[in-house]
Amino acid sequence: MATLRPFVDRVVDRLALQNLAQQYAELDIPSVEACLAFLRTTADVQTALETHFARYGLSMGKFTLLMQLSQAPEQGFTPSECAERSGVTRATITGLLDGLERDGLVERRPCLSDRRMLSVHLTEKGQDLLARMLPDHFCRTTGLMGELTDSEKTTLIELLQKLQAGTRAMFEG
Fold first, then answer.
1. Predicted confidence (pLDDT) per residue in 24-45, tens digit
2. Domain limits, the chain
């Protein structure tokens, strides 16, 4: 995602889009402009989140995993469950867990029901980090959305769901 912003910043202007539309009947100017505005915003939000999480020595992936584990049942989650819940590969989860374990924020333990398997748990240090971080995180999230009314936030969610449904067009054929 970090490489997306330079591309988006070099975007052609409306006149250039109009010229392209004369060459390509498939080019719908409002669709391209909306997509580029979305990409610019996504890049800015991604950069802001990376900066925010870095204050706590975390990445987005590590934070997501810590949040999952904070809501895990007493028996924790297996690495496979963490990967499935995060929508990433086992290899990705292994890398995240290795870093979090090295930092003392999580620990792997043998599963009680099957000693061949491991379960992942937050340590006290991990719980303390989240307790210290979450008030700031939630204030910043509120600030990020602060320019929107509650009604606009609802509309944004609905629009993003529609946009997500449209991503199929990028994958087809």
1. 999 999 999 899 899 999 999 9
2. 30-143
What span, in angstroms and rounded, lies between the C-alpha atoms of 33 and 17? 9
Q: Is 153 exposed, middle or buried (0-12, 13-18, 19+ CB in 10 A)?
A: exposed
**DSSP string for the chain:** -TTHHHHHHT---HHHHHHHHHH-TT--HHHHHHHHHHHHHHHHHHHHHHHHHHTTT--HHHHHHHHHHHT--TT-B-HHHHHHHHTS-HHHHHHHHHHHHHTTSEEEEE-SS-TTSEEEEE-HHHHHHHHHHHHHHHHHHHHHTTTS-HHHHHHHHHHHHHHHHHTHHHH--
Cα gap 65→93, rounded to integer Å: 8
Half-sphere exposure of 130 (CA within 13 A, CB side): 18
The amino acid sitting at 138 is: F
Q: 30-143: what CATH class?
A: mainly alpha
| Model pTM score | 0.82
Q: Which residues contact 165 (CB under 8 A, 6 or more apart)?
A: none
* pLDDT per residue as tens digits for the range 131-173: 999 999 999 999 999 999 999 999 999 999 999 999 998 888 6
Q: Within 10 A of 60 (CB to CB), how many other CB atoms are there?
A: 13
